[in-house]
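Trying the structure run again after the queue cleared.
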Amino acid sequence: MTFNYLAWMYVCGGVGLLLLGEGRRFRLRSPEALTGGFMGLGGILAIWGFLKALEQLSGIVFFPMKAVFGVILTAVLAVLFFGERLTRRQILGILVGAAAAALVNLKNGGS
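Done. Tokens:
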């Protein structure tokens, strides 16, 4: 079901692009088309993973974790690829956010 939704969504977008581009000359082998194709593939994989995660987890668990992991991943990639230096305050903020997401996901003893 998830794949059908994604496939039709991107097929309809591609057909729309071709119809809007009718009469214009463009090459599918241009660097822009290649970059757009990789971005589209990344988008498909991201949405597929998002929907699969929501099939397994409730939204109240998934969304806080997604937000925290997005911040953590962005910070790690900024340090690794751009040489950013995180201040103690920034690190503390990330840790507090991760702890908050973990606390939201803890089950109560009786439920």
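The radius of gyration is 20 Å. Worth checking whether this holds up in the mutant runs.
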